[in-house]
Amino acid sequence: MKMTPMIESFVFHFGEMGSRWGFNRTVGQIYALLVMTQDPISANDIADTLAISRGNVSMGLKELNAWQLVGTVHKQGDRKDYYVTKGSIWEMANKVFEERRKREIDPTLSLLRDNLMDTPGNQSEEYAQARIQEIHDLLENITKWTQSLQALSPEQLNGLMKLGSGVSKVLDLKQKLIQKNQ
């Protein structure tokens, strides 16, 4: 399988971005190739197309499978496994967000909660604990907010995003009304 320049550009860029999103460059490239490929593709074809080892492809597909981002299909009369992406782009984004939350946010919140349960030993620790509380509260609010966003349909989320700066204008107006009524 030969990639067009447009697809190749996307695949290699997605690999670089993948390394920033929590999985290695090769896994990102494999996933991007699957996203850009209409028909199911075999591991051998993935390896040939990306010029990577078959073992590297196998490990990458295992990781993508663990993230529930790829599925396996079979072609009648062919013993090879073929791979496809699971779900829509929106569902993929939700799975990536959820995995990142489990791997990054949840352990951090757990550590912060443990630190907040300790009794401060001095003024320095009291200050640190107050800052830890702020960080904890921010992460909790972000987590609740993102879970609310994940519950929205793609259409609802698009509508919310189209509101854009209009939301901040409504919040500013609400704040002014509250201040006026005090």
UniProtKB/TrEMBL annotation:
Q: Which Gene3D superfamilies match?
A: Winged helix-like DNA-binding domain superfamily/Winged helix DNA-binding domain (1.10.10.10)
Q: Which SUPFAM superfamilies match?
A: Winged helix' DNA-binding domain
Signal peptide residue numbers: none
This protein's species is Glaciecola petra
Cite the PANTHER family for this sequence.
HTH-TYPE TRANSCRIPTIONAL REGULATOR MJ1563-RELATED
For this chain, the family text in UniProt reads:
Belongs to the GbsR family.
Q: State the protein's name.
A: HTH-type transcriptional regulator
Tell me which UniProt keywords the record has, alphabetically.
Answer: DNA-binding, Transcription, Transcription regulation
